[in-house]
Amino acid sequence: MQNTIPTRRRFLQSTAAALSAPLILPGRVWSQESAPSKRITLGFIGMGKMNGGHLKNFVNRDDCQVLAVCDVDTTRRENAKSIVEKTYADKKNAEYKGCAAYNDFRELLDRKDIDAVVIATPDHWHAFIAIAAVNAGKDVYCEKPLTYNIHEAVTLTEAVRKTDRVFQTGSQQRSSKEFRVAAELVRNGIIGELKTITTSFGDPAPPYNKPAEEMEPGLDWDRWCGPGPLVNYNTFLCPRGVHDNFPNWRMTREFGGGMITDWGAHHIDIAQWGLGVDGGGPVEVRAPEKWETAKRGAQLVYANGVVLTHAEGKGCSFFGSEGEVHVNRGKFELIRGGKTIHKFWDKEVDKGTSLDREVILTERELLADAKVKLYNSKGHHQDWIDSIHSRQRPICDVAIGASSVIACHLMNFAYYYGANMKWNPETHTIVSGGDAKWLTRESYRGEWKV
After folding, report:
1. Contacts of 368 (CB under 8 A, 6+ apart)
2. How many distinct structural domains can be found in the chain?
3. Residue 120 lies in a domain
4. Which of 125, 167, 198, 228 has the highest count of CB atoms within 10 angstroms of its CB?
């Protein structure tokens, strides 16, 4: 596709002329703290609940400017555009009409005046759009789970390395101190030799089986299905318009991976951080008994012998020879020698303290002289922006996001196929006990092949 908007200046000029209304130029909309030459220009692709939250954060930053949004749903697309333009207008109490809205993400990526994109489409679109984005010279923030399958994770990582783009996976738990401190405790042997890990999240995904529903005008359903099969429309997959919930496409095998890839991409990511296998992964998969109906019990085994089990628990729990660490969002517990050392788990029970206090005390008392210090991000969005300026890899670089989602897909093999298999995390190949066809789609639809 030919680029019809070669420069940011020409875009601003043509937009102003077309609208015949005042356009607030960047230097007047934003404070003098961020010069236009240092401001990162952004496009947003997929304007559901998750990217709605990202948009509201970035549109209020002085060091960024949102130039475009994209969604296949007209209502969501126009709502996002109006949020951007109203926010910028309110900054100086003057009219602003400088945010474009697209149905086709390729038109947004064609714009040379956009530096970086934030992708929060359904999972089955992540890899194709992210690869197109880095090939177009954009830095990328892409939501987790990073890809729909293992083949896509490997291919996307290769594309990012080839183009040398800054790529942040939206696994924001890495930027929360309770998770970093938990991983540092494990890495520094504070709970002794690590033996087992329990990760707690919901069920694997069944195949999609919903009946066809009549679809309101304004949704490009063919493009929504994209690389996946063209299935019957149902609001189960894609509620229309602006909504404040996470749609159930994630609970289908055709478009997501159930809670194994959804919440599993968070907690297994932290488990692998504590294990020190970022960029690597497990060497064995074990299926639960009665795997055809099982919803818990799948296991991943790592080269050091540590077994990670999907079970009911506290989020991400590390069990060592001398203690335990449990961590979840806003929750933290350290046990040594059978005694609770620091804990904030339930605000109604753990009164008189706070998460910050317990985590900070743990860090001061046990990690002050730690040999292993992990990446300390002050915020997931900020870390990405800082990395764009420095051209360094962010806290959840593409290879980390890829290794975490690959582990999730391997766990799903245990539930989908009863897999008891050996895996090579370096070559991303099945050693024994599995089928290579599991690593990718049976077929990609139309032009959307990864």
Report:
1. none
2. 1
3. no
4. 167
Note down the domain range covering 355.
Answer: 174-204+259-373+403-439
Burial class (CB in 10 A: 0-12, 13-18, 19+), 446: exposed
pTM more than 0.85: yes
Q: What is the pLDDT of residue 12?
A: 38
Question: Is 148 part of any domain?
Answer: no
Count CB neighbours of 173 within 10 A: 23
In a domain, 213, yes or no: no
CATH number, residue 333: 3.30.360.10
C-beta neighbour count of 222 within 10 angstroms: 11
Cα–Cα distance for residue pair 400/277, rounded to 1 Å = 9
**Quick one: pLDDT at residue 17?**
37
What's the number of CA atoms in the CB half-sphere (13 Å) around residue 148? 28
134: amino acid identity, one letter: V
**Cα(343)–Cα(334) distance, rounded to whole angstroms?**
6
> Which residues of the chain, if any, have pLDDT below 50?
1-33
Whether the CB-CB separation of 115 and 41 falls below 8 Å is answered with: yes
Q: Is 350 exposed, middle or buried (0-12, 13-18, 19+ CB in 10 A)?
A: middle
Residue 218 main-chain phi, psi, to 5 deg: 110, 5
